[in-house]
Amino acid sequence: MKIGILALQGAVREHRSVLQKLGAETKDILNPEDLQKIDGLILPGGESTACGKLLVRYNLIEPIAEAGRSGLPIFGTCTGLILLAKHINNSSQYRLGLMDVRVERNAFGRQIDSFETDMSIPVLGDKPFHTVFIRAPYIVQADSNVEILLEYDGKILLAEQNNLLAAAFHPELTKDTRLHEYFLRKVKSAKKYLERGRDF
Ligand code: GLN
């Protein structure tokens, strides 16, 4: 199983080491050609305005959006969630616009820009998951085709829409690999439907 990691900026290394620990092959994505022959894609956290501009500069917006529309499993964390969203409050920044959600950036307010806490995420089992939020966004509104996997205090923090998975927090910064394993299971089941070696 080969997983691409968008490597323009942000927490690339951390995702790479979790995936490798789980036995997946990884490939840094910097050009449209890099999207060929990957089975899934991770959009790491970073800074979404900068990352959107880099996506444009590297001609990656449309190829990634098209791959996502064709069923390539994509997992966005933090900035990755913002890039996946169709709607971003008060912003016209570049995005992939694949998920039927509306996000608010830097949504947790100044005093608690960054924090960590344990959350119960039913799809990951009984043991709480340690979530790390760094100037995090959250989903303020999701269409009915979006499955909400974690919501706290009216804030949607983890959601899924078919082949797309998006987290407001940073699972790659903890030792707990269950969310990456969850994504790899999605990739495995999507592989059954997608031709092996297909060019996205
Ligand atoms: N605050 C960043 C943004 O709006 C996201 C932060 C992150 O990815 N940790 O893009």
Q: How many domains would you count in the coordinates?
A: 1
CATH architecture: 3-Layer(aba) Sandwich
Q: CA-to-CA gap between the ends? A: 15 Å
How helical, in percent, are the residues?
25-40%
Bound small molecules, which ones? glutamine
Structural category is alpha/beta
Residue stretches low in confidence (pLDDT < 50, at least 5 long) are none
What is the number of beta strands? 12
**Which value, in Å, is the CA radius of gyration?**
15 Å
The chain-level mean pLDDT equals 95
What are the secondary-structure elements, in order, as H or E?
EHEEHHEHEEEEEEEEH
- Strand percentage lies at 25-35%
The dominant shape is globular
Largest sheet: 7 strands, mixed
How does this structure look, described?
The protein has 5 helices and 12 strands. 26% of the residues lie in helices and 31% in strands. Strand 1 (2-6), helix 1 (12-21) and strand 2 (25-29) form a beta-alpha-beta unit. The model has no long low-confidence stretch (mean pLDDT 95). Strands 2-1-3-4-12-11-10 form a 7-stranded mixed beta sheet. With 200 residues, the chain is of the alpha/beta class. It has a single domain (2-195), classed as Class I glutamine amidotransferase (GATase) domain (Rossmann fold, 3-Layer(aba) Sandwich), CATH 3.40.50.880. It is globular and about 40 Å long. It has helices at 12-21, 48-57, 61-69, 79-84, 178-193; strands at residues 2-6, 25-29, 40-43, 74-77, 85-88, 99-104, 114-119, 129-134, 138-142, 147-152, 155-161, 164-167. It binds glutamine.
